[in-house]
Amino acid sequence: MSIESKITIGNAIEGECYVGKTTTLETIKNTEGLREKGIIIVPEYSVIGELPKFPRDTIQDVKNAIQRMIDLEKRRTDKLASDLARTNEATVIFDRGPVTCIAFEKAAEKAGFKSATLWLAEAFQREIEDKNILIPNGMIHLTASKDTIKIREADRIKKGGIKVFDFLRDKDVIESLNDTFSLFGEGLPKQLFLTLETDHKNPDEVCAEVLQFIRGQTSEVSDTIPDFLSFAKSLL
């Protein structure tokens, strides 16, 4: 059985910082009974390895950043393949996916930094077509109000968390990120895109809605693979 055939449908949890992505995934991972039902969580890029340096000063820095992100995606795929080797079938949930990298590049460009929106999308698409990486079919876009995010950010920093890049706190940049997530989701089949507001929901409630959405996905959309290159071109 191939690695791909073991995945029912893969979904990425996306959204700006502090909307509850990692908390939701931790809740799913720790939910009684789910561990035995073939739920696999693919860690965020920064958990797999060091992210590219930012900001970038030269075109070579940009090219190095692209290669670094592809290398991290391949390492995520290697980990997923290892996890899948121990099961016959699995529901896979990614802590972010390629669209988050494209959204980051678009936001960086909006903020005046050297970015590589199209180059990165081309690199991802090539690796997908060459079957070097496994990527999510669907996307769950978590959102929260500015006030909620400020409270969560302060709480995370108080507990020793790392502050995000300053430019990622800019209003226009955040708007760019969320617009990119929404535009990408609109191009997916209805069964593969969910926007979920997390302001007044505890982690268990968000977890329940995410799992309900995933359970509603049918095999007819399991072969849907996003076209990142066409999407990136639409952003230009």
TrEMBL record:
Task: Give the source's domain of life in one word.
Answer: Bacteria
**Gene3D superfamilies membership:** P-loop containing nucleotide triphosphate hydrolases (3.40.50.300)
Report the SUPFAM superfamilies cross-referenced here: P-loop containing nucleoside triphosphate hydrolases
Q: Which InterPro entries match?
A: P-loop_NTPase (IPR027417)
Protein name (Swiss-Prot/TrEMBL): Thymidylate kinase-like domain-containing protein
Organism encoding this protein: Candidatus Magasanikbacteria bacterium RIFCSPHIGHO2_02_FULL_41_13
